[in-house]
Write a structure and sequence with these properties.
- The chain has 546 residues and is an alpha/beta fold.
- The chain contains 19 helices and 15 strands.
- The strands form five sheets. Strands 2-1-3-12-4 form a five-stranded mixed β-sheet, with helices on both faces. A four-stranded mixed β-sheet has the order 6-9-5-10. The protein has a two-stranded antiparallel ribbon with strand order 7-8.
- Helix 12 packs parallel to helix 17, helix 17 runs antiparallel to helix 18 and helix 17 crosses helix 19.
- It starts with a helix and ends with a helix.
Length: 546
């Protein structure tokens, strides 16, 4: 009996020790699997462990999420990731919710055994399938989703996020106009709207010559202003597209043959047009040298001095500044040959969820990835909790989407907006999400009745001026390079693009004469390896188009 008593006491003692080591929640909590999640530490997320989105996911899936924080800066977290991998990958968390846009690099990591190939799991993703099927603004099929997350070796090493709204798909080639000044020009010219490159130039001249801000000084107006980081994107694409199709990296699809737009005759003609704007003082030379801070200081000054701006967000202005509602989209301009077009980017996934070799529960990691792709999580990660930060409109409530002019009516409305502030409710769209206009800006109601406008509504109305002229025929997109192709692209692309930017600046400011310097410019591009570079892009394009 004494022996049985001792055994009972020993058992009780052991049980007490085990329970003492369990987390709050006891045995039920201990039975939950744990996933460690690597995230870029977003400054607006107060605490990943106690964040309400985290707690909801843990309860929904029956999992514990422990977070490993990586630097928020893209280059810094990629550097830390590479150091982890070079050290053998022992420090990698189970899951990495980091953007890895270089598919060739991702393939290399996969071939090194650092990431798990997920091909066998992609048929069992009910949340992802449901959400992809519901997208309307920028739809993507499951087949195409798989296509663009598959590396050249045939393996899928991660889930992709899709967050291209209608606005974002065209905004990289946009100039916006200060509407009060534009209306004054339209009244003086008798036009209903500005639709051609010559009308646009004439409008800028009107801004220059007519003391638009009424301060008695007809010399302080700047017709068009940008800054160096957007000169080769927004400003150049807006003004070059009336002459030649211009997109990122200057790729040009000529019936399946990849050409380089910056060597074509239309590019030369576009340069001459842009030079004429510089010659007339219609584009400030500050555009070539100043940064965004200096640019913002000029545009947001108390007295308006700028008539048209490249890549400016109205959110840069104070909420009390009425000019937030007064900048409108220029729209596609028609060139001298009748060409009128914009470049539009499709809604393609980019890898933002990988499973490392250290994960012992790949099934749970995939289950997490799939749930993050749900409609529920897409909205939560951007807006917060239903009923607290937003709600669905019901009954006779009317929600005017910012894209009402495109036929989209809003069906959710914000109750307590928290985007852009420090909070502990959502992940601030960190990591894996599926969102296009259907959950983000198309679905969001900006008012409760027709005629309620804000800056987002104004932008939405203007987007049709771009979408109606979207060029998909000459577009090049969705390139997933092999390691060999990527090596060639990496060797040549930056040098070539930097040289194009340098020569654009020289040509449009008159430092180098366009006609006299054109042949030397083309010759130098060839010496830099343009043919080899385009050959690698062509190889990839042919394979992707199948």
């Amino acid at each position: 009996m004494f022996k049985r008593f001792k055994r009972s006491m020993l058992y009780a003692l052991c049980l007490t020790l085990v329970l003492a080591m369990l987390p709050a929640g006891g045995l039920a909590e201990a039975d939950k699997p744990t996933l460690t999640i690597g995230v870029p530490d977003h400054p607006n997320v107060i605490d990943w462990e106690t964040n309400e989105q985290t707690l909801h996911i843990e309860e929904k899936l029956g999992v514990n999420l422990d977070f490993v924080k990586y630097p928020y800066n893209n280059d810094e977290y990629l550097q830390k990731l590479e150091l982890n991998i070079l050290a053998g990958g022992k420090e990698l968390p189970d899951v990495l919710m980091l953007t890895i846009s270089d598919m060739a690099q991702l393939q290399l990591y996969g071939e090194m055994g650092m990431f798990v190939a997920l091909n066998d799991y992609m048929d069992d993703t009910p949340y992802l399938d449901e959400h992809l099927a519901s997208l309307t603004a920028n739809p993507i099929t499951k087949e195409d989703y798989i296509k663009y997350i598959t590396c050249a070796d045939g393996n899928i090493y991660g889930f992709g996020t899709c967050n291209t709204t209608v606005n974002n798909s065209v905004s990289a080639g946009r100039i916006m106009i200060y509407e009060p000044w534009m209306n004054a020009y339209l009244e003086a010219s008798g036009l209903e709207e500005v639709t051609t490159t010559e009308q646009f130039k004439d409008m800028l001249m009107y801004f220059r010559d007519n003391d638009m801000n009424g301060n008695g000084d007809a010399t302080d107006e700047i017709p068009l202003l940008g800054y160096k980081d957007v000169f080769m994107s927004n400003l150049l694409r807006q003004l070059m597209n009336p002459f030649v199709y211009t997109q990122e990296h200057y790729y040009y699809n000529d019936n399946g043959t990849i050409r380089f737009a910056a060597t074509m005759d239309g590019w030369k003609d576009g340069l001459k047009y842009i030079k004429s704007l510089f010659d007339e003082g219609l584009i400030s030379t500050l555009t070539l040298t100043q940064d965004s801070t200096q640019f913002n200081a000029i545009v947001t000054a108390e007295t308006t001095t700028v008539g048209a701006v490249a890549r400016f967000s109205v959110s840069n202005m104070a909420s009390t500044d009425p000019r937030r509602e007064e900048y409108v989209i220029t729209g596609a301009l028609e060139g001298p040959t009748g060409l009128r077009q914009v470049s539009k980017y499709p809604n393609l996934p980019s890898i933002r969820f990988t499973v490392s070799k250290n994960c012992e529960n790949v099934e749970m990691a995939v289950k997490l990835a799939d749930y993050l792709c749900s409609i529920e999580m897409g909205i939560w990660s951007r807006y917060g909790k239903e009923g607290e930060q937003w709600k669905y409109l019901t009954g006779d409530e009317i929600g005017v989407s910012q894209y009402a002019s495109m036929g989209y009516q809003g069906d959710i409305v914000e109750l307590n907006p928290i985007w852009g502030s420090s909070q502990n409710i959502h992940w601030n769209q960190t990591g894996l999400t599926i969102l296009d206009g259907s959950e983000m800006t198309l679905r969001l109601a900006t008012g409760v009745a027709e005629g309620v406008y804000d800056s987002a509504t104004r932008i939405g109305e203007g987007i049709l001026k771009e979408l109606n002229y979207a060029n998909t025929e000459n577009a090049v997109f969705g390139l997933v390079f092999t390691a060999e192709e990527q090596e060639t692209v990496t060797e040549y692309r930056s040098t070539i693009n930097d040289y194009v930017a340098e020569m654009v600046a020289q040509f449009v400011t008159g430092t180098t004469d366009i006609d006299a310097g054109w042949d030397a410019y083309l010759s130098e591009l060839e010496k830099m390896g343009l043919s080899q570079y385009l050959s690698a892009v062509q190889s990839c394009w042919d394979r992707m188009q199948g």
